[in-house]
Structure formats: C-alpha cells, structure tokens
Write a structure and sequence with these properties.
Layout (H helix, E strand, L loop, with lengths): L2 H9 L4 E5 L4 H12 L3 E5 L10 E3 L6 H7 L8 E4 L8 H21 L6 E5 L28 H16 L2 E6 L3 E2 L9 H14 L10 H5 L1 E2 L2 E2 H11 L9 E3 L6 E2 H12 L11 H4 L4 H11 L12 H7 L11 H5 L8 H14 L8
Helix pairs in contact: 2-8, 3-4, 4-5
C-alpha cells in the first residue's frame, strides 16, 4: 500500500469491510452489524449465506492464487474482520492450516493494494488453556502465553508483523461460548441447547443437563454474537484498541445449575437432575425424529449435521472448572456493553421459535 493511499484512507471516515468466515455465527453477526450501520460489506465464505444483505464472495482462503484473484474485487477494503477457521485433528495441523488462511487473506489484500486501516482477529479461551483443563481465573489479557503451541499465537504473530510492515492497526478479541444463530453453523452453544431441549420434549422426557456435576456447578461465561459484533465495530474505530487484546463476554458469570431449570420452564418441560450423556453419540440417533418435527411444526429445513455441534457441547458440558475472563480492560478503554446471560438465552430461544428454527415453546 502506498503512503499516499494509507494517508487518504486514514483521513476518510468511510468503511469498506471484508468479513472472512461470514458464514459462521460470529462472521454473520459482524457483517450484519456493519451493514446495519451503513458500511459497504463483503463476506467471504465457501458456501452461500442465506438472507445476507451484503455481497458474498465464494473465496477459498486455503488456495493462495485463488485468494489473490478473488480479492481483486475487494481492492477498496479498509477493514478486515477475520473469523475464518478450519478444525484439524492435531495442534500442528491446526497451526498450519489456520495460519495459511490468515496469511493468504492479508497477502491478497496487499496484492490488491487495498487501503487497509484495521484488522480484527478472533481468538478465545484456548489462548489461556481452557482446552487443556484448569487455568488461572479470572484470566487477563496480560497473562503469559502457554508453552503448549497454539494457532492463536501464530496468527497473532503473523498479524502483528504484517501490521508493523504495512501500516495498519490490529486488535485481537477473545470471546467465550458464543451464542447466536447462523444457518448451517453448528459451533454454537445456543443451538446445542435449543435442539437438545426440543428433542427431549418431543420424546416426552424431562430436561437434564447432559454433562458432569463438576461442570454443572462451575462458573462459566458466554458471549452473545450481537454483542461481539458491536465490540468488533468499536475496535475497528477506537484508537486505544490499536495493537490490543480484549476479552469480550456478556460481562456476567453463570452456573448451569441455575440456568437449566429456567430453560426447562421456558420450554414447558419437567426438569430432572443431571445425567452425563455423550451428545455426539446419542443425538445422531434422533435425526429421523427431527425430520418428522420439521414437517410437523413447519420448521426451516436444515441438514441435521449442520444444526448443532454435539461434540462442541460435550466438551463444554464436561469442563468441570471455572472458566472466567476479566473484561475490565475493554471497559477501561471504552467498550462498556453488557448483557444478562439468562435473559439473553430466553430472548434467543424465543427468536429461534419465532423464526421456525425450533418448535414453538411452552
């Protein structure tokens, strides 16, 4: 990027936003939030995004040459929001593939001579070791990295080096337990709970927490996807956010022990004590039942494998340790948005029912 173009972009308040991973629950909410605020938005994903009010680009970020060709159409991009992610079986494979996604996106925009001003990169609790077991809480952004390799670290190093070399700013956001709805994106705690509860009710069973007693009693936190989208917009224009890392959650902590009886009442179900059930093993057996529910309740047809991430739910509902991060730094720097998690779950369940994603409640 030329110095003249960088200066012109800095002086121009308009935003042209490119969202990588726009088909995911995070990317979809961010793209919608920027579009709602009047920005020009383009979303990258391998599959089309139903109902998008912004331009969709089917770019494969793993293909370096295809990425460069595809990003020619985004040469006016001022803000990159990077939410693309590919799951792999080993740490080394995760690092390799997810580093390539980010590198190809950055290099594609550089080749297009885009006037890039800011990049937002999403991380998560794995940065603190949440996937390994107990970690020090409340976790703070200044906590030291772990000796365990992690693709978040590699991506952050890649991004910081590119920002220093090419003259844009970068911010890393760390949500936890993201809840929201996006068609065909199963890595979503909201959908795990909503679909599990709907199937249990259809079977005439009470609602049981399907994890361990330790997880039932541990402190946990979630991040509403719409709140995270607002944090992303804030980070992209807040000077104090340049080069910083922020934990972003709803701002409160929960215990599943308190919430699951509330969920049962809202779904019109009886509640029973926890019973560990491996969802990834149990729930696929109810695919035919769900297809019957789609017809009976006139639900939006969604492939069962895209409806809920059962392995994702199993992991969270078996994490028997406190999972809490501090959001003080974001508040001190100006992002003070917060939500009551119990209230928000109820609102989102109602929205899923109203949009015929799950059957009517109560």
């Amino acid at each position: 990027m030329t110095q003249e173009k960088t200066q012109a972009a800095a002086e121009d308040g308009t935003k042209t936003v490119l969202v990588a991973g726009a088909g995911g629950v995070i990317g979809r909410h961010v793209a919608d939030e920027y579009a709602r605020r009047g920005a020009q938005v383009r979303g990258l994903s391998r599959r089309p995004v139903t109902g998008a009010r912004w331009d969709h680009l089917p770019v494969d970020l793993l293909d370096r040459d295809a990425t460069r060709a595809g990003l020619e159409a985004t040469r006016d991009t001022t803000h990159l929001v990077f939410g693309a992610y590919i799951e792999r079986a080993t740490t080394a494979e995760q690092i390799q593939v997810n580093s390539a996604l980010l590198t190809n996106a950055l290099d594609g925009l550089e080749a297009a001579d885009a006037p890039l001003r800011h990049v937002t990169l999403y991380q998560g609790g794995k940065a603190y070791g949440a996937h390994l077991g107990y970690f020090n809480t409340p976790a703070r952004e200044r906590d030291a990295r772990l000796v365990q390799p992690n693709f978040y670290y590699d991506q952050e190093d890649i991004l910081r080096a590119a920002a220093a070399e090419r003259g844009f700013h970068a911010t890393m956001l760390r949500p936890e337990g993201v809840v929201g709805y996006a068609v065909g994106n199963p890595m979503n705690l909201l959908m795990v709970i909503a679909v599990y509860a709907s199937i249990c009710r259809e079977l005439g069973q009470p609602l049981r927490f399907p994890g361990t007693h330790a997880a039932y009693d541990a402190l946990y936190q979630v991040t509403d996807a719409s709140l995270l989208a607002r944090a992303t917009v804030w980070a992209g224009s807040e000077p104090r956010a340049a080069g910083e890392v922020y934990n972003i959650t709803n701002g409160d902590q929960i215990r599943w022990r308190h919430l699951w009886p509330v969920f049962a009442r809202h779904f019109g179900m009886d509640y029973a004590e926890p019973q560990p059930v491996p969802l990834a093993d149990a729930m696929p057996h109810h695919e035919d039942l769900w297809q019957g529910m789609v017809s009976r309740y006139d639900l939006v047809p969604t492939p069962f494998e895209d409806l809920a991430g059962w392995s994702f739910g199993d992991f969270l509902f078996r994490s028997g340790f406190d999972n809490v991060t501090s959001t003080i730094k974001a508040r001190q720097h100006g992002f003070e948005d917060c939500l009551d998690t119990e209230d928000r779950f109820i609102e989102l369940f109602d929205r899923l029912a109203a949009e015929r994603i799950i059957p009517p409640l109560g």
